Amino acid sequence: MEELNIPTRCYDLTAMDEASRQKVYEEAGAVIRAGGTVVFPTETVYGLGANAMDPLAVQGIYRAKGRPSDNPLIIHVADRDLSGIVSEIPPAAVRLMDRYWPGPLTIIMKKDPGVPAQTTGGLDTVGVRMPDQPAALALIKAAGCGIAAPSANISGRPSPTTFRRCQEDLMGRVDLILGMDQSRVGLESTIIDLSGTVPELLRPGAITLEELRAVLGEVVYVPSATLQGDESPRAPGMKYRHYAPRAKVTLLRGTRQAVQLYLQTRKDEQTLAVLIDADGLDQNPTTSWSGTVFGPDAADSDPSVVRFGSVTEAAREIFETLRWADDQGYTGIWVEAVAETGLGLSLMNRLKKAAAYDVVEVKE
Ligand code: TXA
Ligand code: MG
What we know:
Elements: E1 9-12, H1 18-33, E2 38-40, E3 47-51, H2 55-65, E4 74-76, H3 91-100, E5 105-110, H4 117-120, E6 125-129, H5 134-143, E7 147-148, H6 163-170, E8 176-179, E9 190-193, E10 200-203, H7 209-216, H8 223-226, E11 248-253, H9 256-266, E12 271-276, E13 305-308, H10 311-328, E14 332-336, H11 343-354, E15 359-361
Parallel strand pairs: 1-8, 2-8, 4-6, 5-9, 11-14, 11-15, 12-13, 12-14
Antiparallel strand pairs: 2-3, 3-7, 4-7, 5-6, 9-10
Helix pairs in contact: 1-5, 10-11
Bound molecules: threonylcarbamoyladenylate and magnesium ion (MG).
Threonylcarbamoyladenylate binds at residues 42, 44-45, 47, 71-74, 106, 108, 120, 123, 125-127, 129, 131, 149-151, 188-189, 191, 202.
């Protein structure tokens, strides 16, 4: 990947009082207006932002990530005034915004002609989202423009949910990195396309398919349309490995007992097991992440087994876990599959990509 040698400035917002934070937002807003790049926290994952209306600034995002510039970006806004971004707001979008904005929901609508092709990957539609994160909203307001932002990772790596992971990937590649707590949701936003005749779910996230159907009625979700090769054998050349760590990820689908029996004969200390209590309630919804250490549940005596007490907890921690497993040098990661309903659909969507669709049915 091309070296950029940008003198990156980092600010840990958790260590600041409100007045100091405001100064940082002003500085970061000025960087955005001047065409620079700023990494910022959101409730889903950290974003790598630039002025959505400035084609050169948007090029800086692709350069930083090291990815081809044909991928459409989400425009982040601080309020519902979308003039200059979309050409019209359909009634269904208003209903969704009423209910879920600010929040982890990106809505795709017909774009305003003023939005540069670099931002939308040449499409005539644009994805818009209002993040539910005070620092993100303050930054967008200070910038005074929509901020185009993909996840703040080097292309192909798991999305970052902590300040530290953003620094790991993007030091020297962006102008500013703003650090906050661990992202509350941990998976990228739900994406719904309202530019056609029928609402279409393109990417499941924390706003679930069931919730969208409750608001809109019919919502189409065709996993194979967005997830090519679903359930098919591992693709040669890792073509589909999007959220991939270096370790080989394998999903195990079956009862907890069947999963444990399977692991007994196949798992060694070189590999990590991730068990998820799919029926567990979220015990710790407001966990604040220190960003320095990560490890298996302290109650567990085997360090190569990570347990999550709920799907919500697993969603919040999964990308960090994949990166941590690489740090520890694990060669493989076994992950217990969960039912593909609610947030489980979104978690499995990311896990299947990380596993290159390698799903083993385990039986007792
Ligand atoms: O939670 C999130 O959405 C995070 C945070 C930073 O907001 N952002 C994020 O961006 O995940 P990114 O670039 O990693 O994923 C954006 C996805 C891409 O898969 C892209 O293809 C799709 O959104 N997308 C964006 N605009 C689109 C459009 N007009 N039509 C279809 N897909 C679109
Ligand atoms: Mg991404």
